[in-house]
Design a protein that fits this description.
Blueprint: H1 3-10, H2 17-28, H3 40-47, H4 51-63, E1 67-70, E2 84-87, H5 111-114, H6 125-128, H7 163-169, H8 172-179, H9 186-192, H10 197-204, H11 209-220, H12 236-251, H13 267-279, H14 291-300, H15 305-310
Antiparallel strand pairs: 1-2
Helix pairs in contact: 1-2, 2-4, 2-8, 8-11, 11-12
């Protein structure tokens, strides 16, 4: 592991969360003086994504000019050695697209990028004389199931189109790690992963991954910190506050002439929903229930003091 490489990866901005996660694991596999040579099996296990998703993110990183892939011919029964990944901070990083498949100027693209289905691979024709796989059926194009983690977590709005579909396929913890900046240092990242159940609690509480959680993580980790963050619970009050503000804004009555998208709940309905949430046994951050709501719940007999204490609400 190279600290120079991981520090460089963390400082990159404007990447898709999954792409940044793959970049971090590539840099984590970089060895000073030797380079970066992880197999695809190793990278899929590290990032906990499918092989198809890995290749998509590697292509994004290469198009962004952050990595170059250099395929190395082998000997004997193995036609190719493991790919070398040249990272952007390395001295020998090429300024132009690298010959990742031995391609020269004017030569056709390599078989894994643009080979016509059913035709022989030009680079391997003399050795194997077998047709290239149909790209439509290739495992590199089929989004296979992630065999490392089969946990699926959805939010109340996960059926909507857009980025919600992406995060439904990827582990929320991975998206959270990728969203954090240099304020969550390498050492803190290794420790904070032990507190992943906190993220599950956020999702169970109905907090939206894209609208509530990720913006808070990005805002709170923009700059380096003297005291490292060691638990996801550090962000819970801020996530709860953002969620409450967003829900309140959504429920705010529209002005004349605008279409009302969500009915306004009465005070009694809000109390009943809050009581149901507290009595369900799911995670409830203490900041989600203020003193006025707490007293109203007790007066109405909707919750007990023991239930409130179990959620650290006094």
């Amino acid at each position: 592991m190279s600290k120079l490489a991981t520090d460089w990866a963390i400082l990159q901005r404007g990447l898709h969360p999954a792409a940044k996660l793959v970049l971090w694991h590539l840099s984590n596999r970089h060895t000073p003086g030797s380079g970066c040579f992880p197999s695809q099996d190793q990278l899929t296990a590290d990032a906990e994504i499918s092989r198809a998703s890995l290749n998509i993110q590697l292509r994004r990183l290469e198009e962004a000019g952050l990595i170059r892939r250099l395929r190395r011919p082998g000997r004997g029964p193995t036609p190719w050695k493991s790919t070398r990944y040249i990272l952007g901070f390395e001295a020998d990083f090429p300024q132009k697209p690298s010959p990742d498949s031995g391609r020269k100027s004017g030569q056709k693209p390599s078989p894994d990028l643009a080979q016509t289905p059913g035709k022989p691979c030009p680079d391997l024709q003399q050795k194997h004389a077998k047709p290239c796989p149909d790209l439509e059926q290739s495992h590199l194009r089929i989004l296979d199931t992630n065999l490392v983690r089969k946990k699926e977590t959805t939010t109340a709005r996960s059926t909507h189109a857009g980025t919600h579909d992406t995060h439904a396929r990827e582990a929320p913890e991975m998206a959270c790690l990728a969203a954090c900046g240099e304020g969550l240092c390498v050492e803190a990242r290794a420790v904070i992963q032990a507190t992943a159940p906190v993220i599950d609690g956020w999702m169970a509480a109905g907090y939206d991954l894209d609208a509530d959680i990720l913006p808070v993580l990005q805002a709170r980790t923009l700059r380096k910190r003297d005291d490292p963050i060691r638990t996801w619970a550090y962000f819970t009050p801020a996530v709860a506050k953002r969620h409450a503000q967003r829900v309140a804004l959504t429920a705010k009555p529209k002005s004349a002439g605008e279409t009302q998208t969500a009915p306004t709940l009465s005070a009694q309905e809000i109390l009943l929903q809050t009581a149901q949430w507290l009595n369900s046994g799911r995670f409830v951050p203490p900041s989600a229930v203020n003193n006025t709501t707490r007293d109203a719940l007790l007066r109405a007999g909707l919750v007990t003091k023991e239930t409130l204490r179990s959620h650290q609400i006094y």
